[in-house]
Write a structure and sequence with these properties.
mainly alpha; elongated; 103 residues
């Protein structure tokens, strides 16, 4: 009986720890995906300010070059870098418009 009680408490404790780690992993993945999303937003900016045009160019370069930083962010975001870059290219070709213009 004591053995069952100890086993039950251990199982409950491990389950709680696993749940906390899973939630933490999901939060971290969401944060790194947000980094990519923000870079995409920056890369599609139409601002005429010189500083924002420079920032837009840097964002595009980061998104389209397969450098170590981009690969690391994709890894942390649990995304395939090549598929992600393909989707980014298509989005930038549409100037990141999510809908067609009305006729």
């Amino acid at each position: 009986m004591i053995k069952d009680f100890i086993f039950h408490n251990l199982k409950k404790s491990l389950n709680n720890e696993f749940q906390a780690n899973t939630n933490n992993k999901n939060c971290m993945r969401a944060m790194w995906r947000a980094v990519i999303t923000q870079a995409l937003i920056d890369a599609s900016s139409n601002s005429r300010k010189k500083s924002l045009r420079i920032h837009r160019a840097k964002s595009r370069k980061w998104l389209l070059d397969c450098d170590e930083d981009f690969l690391t962010v994709c890894f942390l975001a649990d995304l395939d870098p090549l598929q992600t870059q393909e989707k980014i290219r298509k989005a930038l070709d549409r100037n990141c418009k999510w809908r067609r213009d009305s006729l």
